[in-house]
Design goal:
The complex is a heterodimer of chains A (242) and B (247). Chain A has 242 residues and is an alpha/beta fold. Chain A has 9 helices and 9 strands. In chain B, helix 3 packs antiparallel against helix 6, helix 4 (64-83) packs parallel to helix 7 (135-159) and helix 7 packs antiparallel against helix 10. The longest helix of chain B has 30 residues, at 97-126. Classes of the chains: A alpha/beta (242), B mainly alpha (247). The interface between A and B is medium-sized, with 27 and 24 residues.
Chain lengths: 242, 247
């Protein structure tokens, strides 16, 4: 299978403290990969080092065969990103933010359709700052999809969304997956991960305590559900530490 | 090009919504023009001069907006966008720093040109001023002054570590230049020692250049001002592009 994301030996430390160490991840085209782990386990750092918004201490990253630092412009023509925190200028409206984003790409998707799909069509003329937390979250997923990307990175995909909105987002992402989109996401919600992800990596103290298919994770653990398996993977190590 | 105008349109709208530049780059030059008009009327620049005090001041008044946009608006905008991590989001798009810098510079070019028209319109309609210089020379000089002042702002916005520092540096540059370069207090009425100190401010040199161009003096007389402004443009602009940081 074609490798869309290929990461090897990725390490990063802040002030001498290792945040991630020697991570290797490989994601095939059309696959959905979920990065799991507690707050502070290094999920966002991993995503940022992959994207080049943070400089890794060591390791190589290739996305669609390109180096995110050296081939930045070429790569991000085909990659959409939603960061954990939403960043936008004061007093900008939803439509304006979408326009500004769309104009940067050669063949952007129709943002009107995307807003419709994510239930934001009636918010086009609202100020972004006036949207609710969930609406903002959905807007930033829309922005990540505007490039008409081959790969999207979604950091904490549905944090802040209500149940119905989460279901809606999952449905839209599953449709995009069927069309061949490769998705790299981080999440705290195991129900979401079970529905969306083909493979997962569970981070703890900067390293993987598990990496592989969702079913495998459940099979290795003594439990039936991913949530229990996840806790088992992350706890086991903890007791080992002490 | 389409991408440039789409960005510019939105950024300009945001800037209008913010109001600060409307006040400092459009209202302020108009207000100072009215005050100088009220004070100097149609008095000659000095006894026996062929041009009036206000005619000689046109260049100075037209730089108030350049100063506001260049060393206040521009660096604060960039520092704010970096602080809000908007630049970080741009880093994961196919856009380049020079494209973004060009859009932001264009915003303040528009403010400057609008204020130029406003000041010129008021001086000629209400105070009987006539433009006796070469329009071509004046516009070239204006372009040079704009770009060199803006490059100072780009440099400050580009290298300031955070919004707080950027705003401190912007204030240190803005207020002395606004007052002592001759933009709001006529250079010609300053005592000689103050004039000598003011000569160190880049905007003072810019105003001398514009004054010469607007009154039709030979530009050879102000070649050193041209050289100083060009040096600022090249050095500060170079530093801004070289040391641009997304985060």
């Amino acid at each position: 299978m074609e490798e869309t994301i290929k990461i090897s030996g990725l390490s990063k430390s802040y002030a001498g403290r290792k945040v991630i160490e020697n991570l290797c991840i490989s994601v095939a085209a059309g696959e959905v990969y979920g990065l799991l782990g507690a707050n502070g386990a290094g999920k966002s750092t991993t995503i940022e080092c992959i994207l080049g918004t943070r400089k890794a201490d060591s390791g190589t990253v290739r996305i669609l065969g390109l180096n995110p630092e050296k081939n930045r412009k070429q790569l991000f023509e085909q990659v959409g990103v939603q960061f954990q925190e939403s960043n936008y200028p004061d007093k900008i409206k939803v439509r304006e933010l979408c326009e500004e984003t769309a104009c940067l790409y050669r063949q952007p998707s129709d943002y009107g359709e995307l807003l419709q799909k994510f239930g934001l069509a009636d918010k086009k003329d609202a100020l972004v700052s006036e949207l609710s937390g969930g609406q903002k979250q959905k807007l930033f997923i829309v922005l990540a999809l505007i490039p008409n990307p081959k790969v999207v990175f979604l950091d904490e995909l549905t944090t802040g969304l209500d149940t119905k909105a989460r279901r809606g987002v999952w449905k839209s992402l599953q449709e995009l997956k069927e069309q061949g989109l490769t998705i790299f996401l981080s999440s705290h919600f195991m129900d979401e991960v079970e529905i969306l992800c083909d493979r997962i990596g569970i981070l703890k103290d900067g390293g993987f305590v598990f990496e592989g298919a969702v079913q495998e994770a459940v099979a290795i653990s003594p439990y039936e559900k991913l949530e229990d398996a996840y806790l088992w993977f992350t706890k086991e190590e903890e007791s080992g530490d002490e | 090009m389409n991408k440039f105008f789409t960005m510019l349109k939105t950024e300009l709208r945001l800037s209008f919504r913010g109001m600060d530049m409307i006040i400092f780059a459009l209202c302020m030059p108009v207000a100072v023009t009215v005050i100088w008009g009220a004070v100097y009327g149609n008095k000659p620049a000095f006894s026996g001069a062929e041009y009036s005090f206000l005619e000689q001041s046109f260049g100075a008044l037209s730089t108030i907006a350049v100063c506001a946009g260049g060393v206040m608006g521009l660096p604060l905008l960039i520092a704010d966008y970096r602080n809000k991590k908007i630049l970080k989001r741009y880093k994961v798009t196919p856009t380049s720093p020079s494209f973004l810098l060009a859009v932001w510079v264009a915003i303040y070019v528009i403010y400057s040109l609008l204020s130029l028209l406003l000041v010129f319109g008021m001086l000629s309609l209400f105070f009987g001023c006539r433009f006796s210089g070469s329009l071509g020379n004046f516009l070239w000089a204006y372009l040079l002054v704009m770009l060199s002042m803006f490059s100072i702002g780009l440099m400050v916005g580009g290298i300031a570590p955070d919004l707080k520092t950027a705003s401190v540096i912007a204030s240190i540059l803005y207020f002395p230049m606004l007052i002592f370069s001759g933009a709001t207090l006529p250079y010609e009425v300053m005592p000689r020692t103050l004039q000598r100190a003011a000569d160190f401010l880049p905007l003072t040199q810019g105003i001398k250049l514009l004054k010469a161009a607007s009154l039709g003096f030979p530009l050879e007389a102000v070649w050193n001002s041209v050289a100083i402004m060009s040096a600022f443009l090249i050095i500060c602009g170079g530093i801004a592009v070289r040391f641009f940081r997304w985060e």
